[in-house]
Design a protein that fits this description.
The complex is a heterodimer. By secondary structure, chain A is α/β, with parallel strands linked by helices. Chain A is built from 22 helices and nine strands. Classes of the chains: A alpha/beta, B alpha/beta. The interface between A and B is large, with 148 and 150 residues.
């Protein structure tokens, strides 16, 4: 199991101390309860022999109390230690996963389409904590108890020890692996069914209006119930096995107890042990086996971890090789952007996403880029910030290829995307991400530039307001303004806005654009957009179509000369019916 | 205790059966323990092996009965839990359809799915575990206590005193831990969510050039989280500790007292050993109950959520039919004093709506976000019911429109038509699974989908939706249009169909939709003004009320709300002033 070696074992090495402590305390817990039973059995038998002096049982009396306290105490510390261990591991794993994702942040969405992959990965790591607490620790503890019991028995009678070892092997090896094998197929089936139930229900919840309008909800209910019932049937078979396994293991426990009892009786008969110990040996079987019985259940969880590990492993596969550390750049203050004959093609597609594309953006110009989805807008952006490399042609920002800047590219380009992420912390902390050293005055300046100052200061906590406090959520337009303020604080010479107004109503849209152009008047602005209103003053409007420029020019010029543009503009402004 | 537990179908019967089984089980436990003690004593005294084997056999049989009953009991509980939870899952689905899109959106689509697919199994686990556990908790310790009383009064006394003390500590400490957790909930939640928040915001961090530095904050927050969690756990684990401590210690104390009296000759070995074996069994049901505490609590909570959702008000059953006939050019629909109150937002989403719509008119509904456009559309499309007022269709007076034969008259195109997971063909034929290939091809052509389909390697068989190929907003609209083209109905309702599209796509899709408007009643809600020029009548909504009605020209002349809206939109320099007026009004 290479996944195990790759993602679990290293932490055992890294946190040797914590791991050992958790396992030691866990083993101690079972040993203490076994010792309690053993001494209690001895105490009672010995006492029944009515020794003339109470001092004869003084030691067992003390021990019984000591073990009685030792068990709960060591159990308590075992739980704390093991949780502390896994939480420490969690921290390290999180950083590791973060590193892996950080290097490919811009491509995660396109590489892993499945829903909320990031949320799933975060959950995966937390599930892996169970791997330690619910599987690895109990199994290792069981192994120790197994070894302990067999070795101690072997001191008295190695042949019998061998026989008991064989019986115990059933409990800690045969049953767990048999279960894994037996349930394997069913587990896959249940997962499939669950997946399709999930898909069906999602389709229904999100497509509920279509189901209602189509008048076919019975069809859905029938199909869903069918899948559900099938899944339940398989689940039932699985639980049947777990119940039956429990029964079998309990019966096996009973048998082992009888074996040990009879053995102890025989040993006493032969004079190898005192008869006083018969009760002790017989009864100690139960608390010891209590430490071995959970193995099957612990192993049952393994497939779940495998699934999580596979997902994490998949992410690691795409981690690009570390680039050489870049030399520090002196960031150009007034960079021009030049794209010359740029062609780019995505892997596996014949048609280029951008073809022979040339564009000069002198410093300070405002450019708007429009186009249908798939026309090449995102490709154009990703080429500019160096996330993609052109197949042919050259891209220069301030004289350098964007990729030469490395991470420093973000000191040249500020990007405001369609749904800028605002973190679940205060407004102030969100702003400070733009520039951690910003002063109070600078913060005030930017929020007043984006016209939020009055609003934010009218809130009870001002800049310390949490982004997502109940009842005070910021609207779409306000969120964009906060993100814009953050970009302003970053103060890069070039700002790229990627569809910043989608989902806003026309008035909010217009206001936001007006703010954008007024606060960014000294910078180069490239705005990707879907509407024409609000762009009357930009230096150039470009329409992309199938990777090429299909229309370009200044608003008034296009309005005058270009029929199609006129039509679109009048439609957008509501002046024309079509 | 959960009062609902007695309400479930067959629950009383199941409880009765389980109670009987647990009683038998308790007796089996007594036999098992007594015969084990007897066997040990027999060996100790060096009795005949034949006798010892017999005693062990009885022990083993008693064990088999006990565990056999356990098995059977689990099966009974499982079947009950499975039937009950499936029944409630069906009710949930039924309810979801009855409540319609508005409630589903309010509850959160994700929450609905989680409740149905994860809440229901949790609820099942709760039923499966809790019922047998709680019955064992009441019966088994009691039976053991009674039996111990016969053997040794002092031990029985210890058992009976310890149990309430143990429960008291368990509950008190559990309560203290809960309080501690709640006290720190807010900061705890931030710490716990920090990681996922960071991952979701990774692209933004990258764009801000802060992604490398943020690594440190992941490490430090994880460390803080660890410390905070351990601090809470120290208290939380105390409650299990108390349970462990009292039960283990009382076994130890009992054995010491037994020993002392054995020395004095006040007791004999057999009863003493029996008591020693029985003592741990006395505490087992409590331990089982506490072990499953979390699973039980989750399930109980899920159960409450399910009941709460099912109690949500649905007006009438939407399966009824009403005899208002068909919709043609002479049909009349009028709304009188329609009001929609939202209990959550504590305000009227719509109020005093009086409106008459006739024949095949084209009606535009305009207003800013929150003006009540979607609420009105939902009522007209029969997805939701008004809280007040009446609706008259062709002379038939009704209180709402959520009737099947009304919905059957409607084609509905929302802003984001849902794409089902399946092929393009399945999606287009969603309403008309029997449409022929020619019909589909024609719809594809009219909706402007043919260049899109031509690019798919599988053509119409290409998988889209969840798990399939991603398609753009414009393509979604085209599919919705194709669906409607295959199944044309006399009323077409559109809710903001083009606002999110790029202007070229919007232009193209509009030109394809307009011909489809012919000979239909069209109701179109949007804030895109250009649509209004294609409408016969415009309804301007503001704060849930109709503030203006008329044609585009009439409303412009009036220089009222509509005019303001148009000016604000085209505004240029005057934008700020007009929009201020506008936003202050809304």
């Amino acid at each position: 199991m290479t996944l195990f070696q790759k993602y679990i074992l290293p932490y055992f090495k890294q946190y040797k101390g914590l791991m050992t402590a958790s396992i030691f305390l866990g083993t101690l817990t079972f040993l203490a309860s076994s010792a309690l039973t053993f001494t209690a059995g001895y105490l009672i038998t010995r006492s029944s022999e009515m020794p003339y002096n109470i001092l004869m049982v003084y030691v067992p009396i003390v021990l019984v109390r000591a073990f009685g306290i030792a068990r709960p105490v060591s159990h308590y510390f075992e739980r704390l230690t093991s949780h502390n261990t896994v939480l420490t591991v969690l921290g390290t794993m999180r950083v590791k996963l973060y590193d892996a994702l950080e290097t490919q942040a811009l491509f995660v969405r396109s590489r892993f389409q499945a829903g909320d992959i990031l949320g799933t990965l975060a959950d995966d790591i937390e599930h892996l904590l169970d791997a330690y607490v619910r599987t690895i620790f109990p199994v290792v503890i069981a192994l120790f108890l197994f070894l302990f019991s067999v070795v101690v028995l072997a001191v008295f009678d190695w042949l019998f020890a061998l026989w008991i070892a064989l019986c115990l092997v059933f409990i800690i090896f045969v049953y767990p692996y048999l279960s894994l094998y037996l349930l394997k197929k069913r587990r896959v089936q249940v997962k499939e069914k669950k997946g399709s139930m999930y898909r069906m229900l999602t389709d229904t919840v999100f497509g509920i209006t279509d189901w209602i309008i189509s008048g076919k909800k019975e069809r859905f209910q029938k199909e869903f119930t069918q899948v559900r019932d099938h899944s339940l049937q398989i689940e039932k078979k699985m639980t049947d096995w777990t119940y039956s396994r429990f029964f079998q293991l309990q019966m096996l426990t009973g048998l082992i107890l009888i074996f040990v009892g009879i053995w102890a009786g025989l040993q006493a008969q032969e004079g190898n042990i005192l008869p006083t110990y018969i009760a002790s040996f017989t009864l100690v079987t139960l608390p010891l086996l209590e430490g071995l019985l959970p193995t099957s259940e612990a192993i049952d969880h393994v497939p779940k971890y495998q699934e999580s590990l596979q997902r994490i492993d998949q992410i690691q596969k795409f981690v690009p090789e570390e680039k050489n550390p870049q030399t520090k750049f002196s960031i150009p203050r007034n960079p021009d952007i030049q794209l010359t004959n740029v062609t780019f093609r995505y892997e596996g597609s014949e048609k280029p996403a951008l073809e022979n594309f040339s564009l000069d953006i002198p410093f300070g110009q405002k450019i708007a880029v429009l186009g249908k989805s798939g026309a090449g807008k995102s490709t154009f952006l990703q080429l500019i910030y160096g996330a993609l490399s052109p197949e042919r042609g050259s891209i220069k920002i301030g004289g350098y290829d964007p990729r030469e800047y490395g991470e420093q590219i973000h000191e040249v380009l500020g990007i405001l995307n369609q749904k800028p992420y605002l973190f679940a912390t205060t407004v102030k902390n969100n702003l400070l991400l733009g520039n951690p050293d910003a002063t109070e005055e600078e913060l005030d300046q930017v929020i007043s530039a984006v016209k939020l100052k009055d609003y934010i200061y009218s809130l009870p906590f001002g800049l310390e307001t949490q982004m997502e406090e109940t009842g005070q959520r910021f609207s779409g337009g306000e969120r964009q303004r906060i993100a814009l303020a953050r970009i302003l604080l970053k103060n890069t010479p070039i700002v790229i806005l990627d569809e910043p107004t989608i989902g806003l109503d026309p008035i909010t849209e217009r206001d936001l654009l007006a703010t954008v152009f007024s606060v960014l008047k000294d910078k180069t602005v490239i705005i990707i957009t879907h509407h024409l209103i609000g762009l009357e003053k930009v230096d150039k409007i470009i329409f992309l179509d199938e990777g090429k420029i299909s229309m370009q020019g200044q608003h008034h010029e296009l309005l005058e000369k270009n029929n199609r543009y006129r039509q679109l503009y009048r439609l957008d402004s509501g002046e024309q019916a079509l | 205790m959960d009062k609902n537990l007695l309400r479930y179908k067959g629950s009383k019967k199941v409880m009765a059966i389980i109670t009987m089984l647990v009683l038998v089980q308790a007796i089996a436990i007594l036999f098992q323990s007594v015969y084990l003690a007897k066997a040990i004593v027999a060996m100790y005294k060096g009795e005949q092996w034949k006798n010892i084997f017999f005693l062990f056999t009885v022990f083993f049989l008693a064990l088999a009965v006990r565990q056999g009953i356990q098995w059977f009991k689990s099966k009974v509980a499982y079947r009950f839990a499975e039937q009950t939870s499936s029944y409630y899952q069906d009710l949930l689905l039924e309810k979801m359809f009855a409540l319609g899109p508005r409630v589903v959106r309010k509850e959160g689509s994700g929450n609905m799915i989680t409740l149905c697919l994860e809440g229901v199994p949790q609820f099942r686990t709760y039923l499966e575990l809790f019922v047998p556990r709680i019955i064992s908790f009441f019966i088994i310790p009691f039976v053991i206590f009674i039996y111990t009383l016969q053997l040794d009064k002092l031990s029985a006394l210890i058992l009976v005193i310890v149990l309430p003390i143990l429960m008291l500590f368990f509950v008190l400490l559990g309560w203290a831990a809960e309080r501690e957790k709640n006290r720190k909930m807010a900061s705890y939640k931030i710490l716990a969510n920090h990681f996922v928040d960071s991952l979701r915001g990774l692209v933004t961090l990258k764009f801000l050039g802060r992604s490398k530095q943020h690594r440190e904050s992941i490490a430090s927050v994880s460390e803080k989280y660890r410390k905070a969690t351990i601090r809470t756990l120290r208290i939380a684990f105390l409650s299990t500790f108390s349970l462990d401590f009292f039960s283990t210690l009382s076994v130890a104390v009992i054995s010491v007292f037994l020993g002392l009296r054995l020395i004095e000759g006040e007791m004999s070995l057999l009863p003493a050993l029996t008591v020693l074996i029985l003592a741990p069994e006395y505490f087992n049901p409590v331990k089982d109950l506490s072990n499953d505490y979390h699973a039980t609590m989750d399930g109980l909570h899920a159960g409450k959520m399910i009941h709460r959702f099912l109690e949500e008000e649905t007006a009438a059953d939407d399966t009824d039919e009403q005899a208002f006939g068909h919709w043609d050019e002479n049909s009349v629909l009028s709304l009188q004093g329609i009001e929609k109150h939202s209990a959550e937002e504590k305000r009227n989403l719509l109020s005093g709506i009086d409106l008459t719509i006739t024949g095949f008119k084209k009606i535009g509904v305009i207003g800013l976000s929150g003006a009540g456009k979607s609420t009105l559309i939902n009522i007209l499309a029969g997805f939701d019911q008004p809280t007040k007022g009446k609706i008259i269709v062709n002379g038939v007076e009704l209180s709402h429109l959520t009737y099947r034969n009304w919905q059957r008259l409607i084609n509905y195109i929302p802003q984001h038509p849902y794409i089902f997971s399946g092929t393009v063909l399945d999606n287009i034929r969603f309403y008309t699974p029997d449409a022929t290939e020619e019909e589909v091809k024609e719809a594809v052509r009219l909706a402007g989908l043919d260049p899109v389909v031509a690019e798919f390697s599988e053509g119409l068989q290409e998988k889209i939706g969840q798990g399939g190929r991603m398609i753009s907003g414009g393509e979604e609209q085209r599919i919705a249009l194709a669906r409607a083209l295959l199944d044309p109905r006399p009323i077409l309702i559109l809710d903001e169909p083009t606002a999110h599209l790029d202007i070229e796509t919007e232009h193209d899709i509009k030109s394809r939709m307009l011909p489809f408007f012919k000979n239909k009643l069209v109701i179109l809600a949007t804030h895109r003004l250009h649509w209004m020029r294609n409408m016969d009548e415009i309804i301007v909504l503001d704060q849930g009320k109709i503030v203006e009605r008329g044609t585009h020209e009439e409303l412009l002349q009036k220089r009222g709300k509509y005019w303001q809206l148009v000016k604000a939109h085209q505004g240029g320099e005057k934008v700020d002033t007009v929009s201020k007026v506008y936003t202050s009004v809304f």
